[in-house]
Amino acid sequence: MSNIAIRAENLGKMYRIGGKQERYSTLRDTLVDAIIGPMRRMRRLVRGQSANDLAEEIWALADVSLEVQHGEAIGIIGRNGAGKSTLLKVLSRITEPTLGRADIYGRVGALLEVGTGFHPELTGRENIYLNGAILGMRRKEIDRRFDEIVDFSGVEKFIDTPVKHYSSGMGLRLGFAVASHLEPEILVVDEVLAVGDAEFQKKCLSKMSDVTGSGRTVLFVSHNMAAIQSMCQRGIWLDHGRVVEVGPVEQVVADYLSKAVVARLDQIWDDQTQAPGNDRVRLHRARVKPIEGDTKDPISMVTSILL
Predict the structure, then answer these.
(1) Which residues, including other chains, have CB under 8 Å from residue 237's CB and lie 6 or more apart?
(2) Which one of 18, 104, 234, 240 is least enclosed by Cβ atoms within 10 Å?
């Protein structure tokens, strides 16, 4: 039996910006477009216009292929706009790829945005049962985990209040509690943990460590390299929608920090009048480097320090 949890082949996701935004069509929209659509297109052609004249194509993902084994914890890193969140949305079936395909083997619990999967008119209690049903769980299974979910979220006083009245922090707490406690086989978590306070982030990371320790699969997007390295075995570095590197997480993070993160570790003041200091002493050069290495080596939370 295959041990593959996720297999993606040549994934591509294209968005059009600046043009008319697409939306879901109703039956009425389809019928109206069938009748008057040809006339609209003819008018555009007569005027020398095209529907895509003002639209710009952006490939958020381009030719992304990967395999994730059951029980693996994968850290996905890259700059803002690199395609990390888009990849998670495609793998979570929230959006469909423009090109390629992705096969998912197991139930997916996703926390991509605050309140993802919640219906604003339903209470916190009702949304817990709704999300469990979407994951294919029986009511008895949800009942068994209900108290634990509410206790973890810390919103027990408001569990019977519609979630549209929740603050972003409350929505985040309940969202993570639901996503991590309803026993998904694959847990997908975006950078939304940055919204919570330090205590809650620590609580979430501890829970995610428990999830990975129980043999479930985790895809974790974060700019927190320390969290990525402590939780994940493998890393995926994305840049402009493409995979730059896949490998052991320590190596991928080190390469990303050294090549992608611009950090000024060396400063020289050639003009003495502009150099910091006073009439007696002025600074000519300042440099920061690791104890074991040089100024080209990255400095992170795991770099050795001298006490």
Answers:
(1) 77, 78, 243, 244, 245, 246, 252, 255, 256, 260
(2) 18
User: What is residue 268's three-state secondary structure?
Assistant: strand
CA-based R_g, the chain, Å? 24
Residue 261's pLDDT is 58
Are 208 and 187 in contact by the 8 Å Cβ rule? The answer is yes
User: Residue 226's Cα: distance from chain center in Å?
Assistant: 16
44 contact partners, CB below 8 Å, separation of at least 6: 50, 51
The structure tokens 């700019």 sit at: 223
Q: Amino acid letter at 16? A: R
> Which of 191, 94, 80 is CA-nearest to residue 134?
94
Strand order from edge to edge, sheet including 73-77: 108-111, 186-189, 217-221, 73-77, 234-239, 242-248
Length of the chain equals: 307
Positions of the chain with pLDDT lower than 70, given as ranges = 1-2, 18-34, 37, 40-42, 44-55, 113-116, 192-197, 260-265, 293-307
Chain-centre distance of CA 221, in angstroms?
Answer: 4
d(CA 71, CA 151): 26
Q: What is the pLDDT of residues 226-282, one digit of tens each?
A: 888 888 999 999 999 999 999 999 999 988 988 765 556 678 888 888 888 888 888
List residues bridging with 77 in a β-sheet: 237
Residue 30 is which amino acid?
T
